[in-house]
Design a protein that fits this description.
Layout (H helix, E strand, L loop, with lengths): L1 H14 L16 H4 L6 H13 E2 L2 E2 L1 H5 L3 H12 L7 H21 L20 E3 L2 E3 L1 H9 L29 H13 L6 E4 L4 E4 L2 H4 L1 H5 L3 H6 L1 H11 L3 H10 L2 E4 L11
Parallel strand pairs: 6-7
Antiparallel strand pairs: 1-2, 3-4, 5-6
Helix pairs in contact: 1-7, 3-5, 5-6, 6-7, 12-13
């Protein structure tokens, strides 16, 4: 119980929902280089260079990046020094997404070329911990802190797998985070292979299992209740899909929601 409470307090602090204890006060002092990881400047610019150079067609050129990882390491060092709770809300959200994606990429590189899927690595998301603002956090904890701010992060955090959203070819920035997430969401929902596909004949809406796994984020209800409230998931999709003709069809025909299979193969690019 005590361990669970510590984790909960930590997540709330990262999401901006609480004050740090006296023992965490030192974490709130953010160096100039560290703060840049959440807003802009040298640290974020380093991650931006990684993405512009090695992110291709929504995936990563892992082989090339493994030989050229100085910018990635510089960004990760900044992540380790930066306390998310000390950043303004937009910068905090950008920081958490950037940190998650960079840590995933680094985790793949540690095992590359012998890795075919992160799903085969025990504890990749919920066991292994990483330095974030003076704490040790799992990827699931970093993602949870971001989800507390905006559920659209589901279309920005990338788990290095084929059915994940495409890795954006630029870093997230606080001053443009809303636009970036809006674009990411619409792009993912426009992808018929892994995001969303409407089949008129059987009147079925085939959606990514992300909407099943995190149903509560899209319906506002508990995860258990939301799982059965597929109409709520459908309503969220209708509000955020970029295709207005499809949105109209979904509203009028109320198709059955069918969840797609998830392809965990590595998003490797040559």
């Amino acid at each position: 119980m005590a361990t669970a409470c510590v984790v909960l307090v930590s997540l709330l602090a990262m999401a901006g929902g609480g004050e740090a204890s006296s023992g965490e006060a030192g974490d709130l002092a953010v160096s100039a280089a560290g703060q840049a990881a959440g807003s802009g400047g040298p640290a974020t610019d380093a991650w931006d260079r990684v993405l512009k150079k090695h992110s291709v067609d929504g995936g990563v050129r892992y082989a090339a990046l493994k030989r050229d990882r100085a910018d990635l390491d510089a960004f990760l060092a900044s992540v380790a020094r930066t306390s998310p709770s000390s950043l303004p809300r937009p910068e905090r959200l950008a920081f958490l997404i950037n940190a998650y994606n960079a840590i995933v990429v680094a985790g793949v590189l540690e095992r590359y070329p012998g890795i075919e899927s992160v799903k085969t690595v025990g504890g990749f998301f919920d066991g292994e911990t990483h330095a974030v603002g003076g704490r040790r956090m799992t990827l699931d904890e970093i993602e949870a802190a971001a989800r507390e701010i905006d559920p659209r992060v589901h279309f920005a955090v990338v788990c290095a797998s084929t059915s994940c959203p495409d890795l954006r070819g630029e870093a997230y920035r606080g001053e443009r985070i809303d636009r970036q997430l809006r674009e990411d969401t619409r792009r993912f929902l426009a992808d018929r292979s892994k995001g969303l596909r409407y089949e008129e004949g059987p009147n079925e809406l085939h959606a990514s299992p992300i909407f099943k796994w995190y149903a509560g984020d899209f319906t506002g209800g508990s995860r258990v209740v939301a799982f059965f409230a597929r109409g709520g998931v459908r309503d969220w999709i209708t509000e955020h899909v970029g295709d207005q003709a499809l949105a109209k069809t979904i509203r009028e025909r109320e198709p059955e929601v069918i969840y797609m299979d998830y392809d965990w193969s590595l998003n490797d690019r040559k």
